[in-house]
Design a protein that fits this description.
171 residues; alpha+beta; four-stranded antiparallel beta sheet; two-stranded antiparallel ribbon; 6 helices; 16% strand
C-alpha cells in the first residue's frame, strides 16, 4: 500500500478485498487494476505490472530528462557510478560559493533527486551528500550534482522491483 495525502495505491494479492476492508473507513474510488504488462503513472511515479508476482516502480516518463535539462545536460557523457570521493579540484571549488540564481537551481535539482530516491536506492548516499550543501552550495557541490546527473542519464530505465512471492497476506 502506498498513500500520498489522500491518494492510496495498492499492489498485491486480494487487492479488491483489501479495498473493501478500507471502504467503511474512507471514501475510495477504484480506478484501475493493472494486468501483466500494463503501466500507470500516479503522482510522478510509474508503476508497471511485469507479471502476477512482480511490479516495477520508477519515476514518471520524462522526470529524469527534465532534471537533466535544468543543467543543460541532455547530451552529457555517462558516469559509471552516482558519486565518488572528492578530488583535489573539487576541494578547491568548495571554496567558491554559487550565485543566488545557481543556488536556487541547485536546491531545485536536489529536491527532484530526493523525490527520486524512493525508487532509486542506488543514488541515496549521493543525494544525501548533495543535500548537506543545500544552505551554501559551492562549485564543487555543482560538480558532484552533475556527476550524479550523468549517472542518471545512463541508468534512467532503472527502478525498484517489488516481488509479492513469499509476502504474507495478513500482517
Amino acid at each position: 500500500v502506498s498513500v500520498h495525502v489522500d491518494e492510496p495505491m495498492m499492489a498485491g494479492r486480494q487487492v479488491k478485498a483489501r479495498f473493501d476492508e478500507m471502504r467503511p473507513h474512507m471514501r475510495l474510488k477504484e480506478t484501475k487494476i493493472l494486468q501483466s504488462g500494463q503501466s500507470i503513472e500516479h503522482l510522478g511515479r510509474s508503476y508497471t505490472r511485469l507479471d502476477e508476482e512482480t511490479f516495477k516502480t520508477g519515476p514518471a516518463k520524462g522526470y529524469i530528462e527534465d532534471t537533466l535539462e535544468l543543467w543543460g545536460m541532455e547530451k552529457c557523457n555517462l558516469a559509471p557510478t552516482p558519486g565518488a570521493n572528492k578530488t583535489e579540484n573539487e576541494k578547491k571549488l568548495d571554496q567558491v560559493k554559487l550565485n543566488p540564481e545557481r543556488h536556487w537551481q541547485y536546491r531545485q535539482a536536489v529536491g527532484r533527486l530526493q523525490f527520486l530516491v524512493e525508487d532509486r536506492n542506488d543514488i541515496g548516499y549521493a543525494v544525501k551528500e548533495l543535500a548537506r550543501d543545500l544552505t551554501e552550495p559551492s562549485e564543487g557541490s555543482l560538480l558532484r550534482l552533475k556527476r550524479l546527473c550523468s549517472y542518471l542519464k545512463g541508468t534512467a530505465d532503472l527502478g525498484m522491483l517489488i516481488r509479492l512471492k513469499g509476502v504474507p497476506t495478513k500482517l
